[in-house]
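Hi W., the histidyl-adenosine monophosphate complex you wanted:
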Amino acid sequence: MPSFRAPRGLRDLLPPERQAFARLERLAAELAGRYGYRPIETPLLEQVAVFERGLGEVTDVIEKELFLLQPREEDGERWALRPEPTAGIVRAYIQHGMHTWPQPVKLAMTGPMFRYDRPQAGRYREFRQFDVEVIGDPGPAVDAEIIELAARFYREAGLENVVIQLNSIGDPVCRPAYIEELTAYYRKHARELPPLERARLERNPLRILDSKDPAVAALNAAAPKAIDRLCDACAAHFAGVRAHLHALGVEYELEPRLVRGLDYYTRTAFEVFPAGATGQQSAIGGGGRYDGLVELLGGRPTPGIGFGIGLDRVILALQVAGAATGEEQVPLAVVVGSAPDDTATRLRIATDLRGAGLAARAELGTRKLGKQLEAAARDGAHFAVIVGDELGDGHVQLRDLEAGTQRAVPTAGLARELERASRTHRHGLDAGRDGEA
Ligand code: HAM
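Structure:
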């Protein structure tokens, strides 16, 4: 047993897995650009109050899952690792006066989030999200635009069968009466509630609807629904969102029990699952509108909407579906030689190829040529550049490792020749290797 291990629930991403994330990160950045979202990055930690106030104190994330940092001084500021990006991005929007920028401000971020939850399949203490936020547009068209963007991300990532669940959870006009009705309902059934849910009954009954405890599932199924109690403005907004989704051809299911796990949501709420899987653990993304959050964190009243896609779970879902998750880059060529000790020449030739933009590895050990070639094949390299006696008159041998053919090539034109050969090679880079286009 090694003496040290990664902290529980935090994973090392080894090369093949890191490559799968890199592929999704590239797609996220490219899609964000295509839709006009500008990149932002906020710190991995924030003042605890940003999360407490933003996400709501009576939520799982705040009550149980915050990764708190030990202050260095007695009266030091309290910090926590970010459990999600929205509160930090809204804090940045206010801090940097982004309300003076042309509205709406459309932002995208990809990075790790931390929740001190019980680790299990698909639930990690460190996970990665692709997040987008639109601040300053009340919708409903932008609500549909953002849901369509999420749908496209899954499709272009290679996940064909996803289910989008949609709901509207009202706003400060209609929510209070609904909460009262919900509280009355749960009060009637208080004895059936597990301790955590009972404690939340008076403080935040919406969280009971969102409970992970199977004991409350039946109770939740019969609970009053927000969608039936929307005020006229919320109902019109929701009808607008649905009409825009219809016009875009985005399919979704109405899910009246969907409330999301964070308090900042108003009106539109949605969650995405791989087909055939439901339950919070398998959600591969979720989002919604948060029209009160900017004001709650000290800015002027400003509407907002966004989503977060869980990249770890997208990769799991791709694996379950048997879809490609991305390939590691293999060297196009490995430079080997018949004089095992002449590492300098091999390294120089590989360096020149890299300078020309090609992926090349040099054999830097001093094993025999046969072993060097075996290693090149194991690397998955397409070509071996063999340095031998002809180097004296400016030539090396270029061997196609799969075809087993080889010919002499002038060293001066090696990069150009390799580039040309890689284009015609049947497994060459142009053949559309996954994730490398
Ligand atoms: P969320 O639903 O808490 O929303 O998280 C979004 C996604 O992150 C989830 O659907 C899931 O795929 C992934 N996720 C969450 N927790 C874990 C975990 N412990 N392990 C692995 N994956 C996880 C938010 O975070 C909101 N900020 C989304 C949003 C943005 N709403 C408006 N703007």
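Residues 84-86, 115, 117, 123-124, 127, 129, 131, 133, 261, 283-288, 290, 306-308, 310, 312-313 surround histidyl-adenosine monophosphate (CB under 6 Å).

W.
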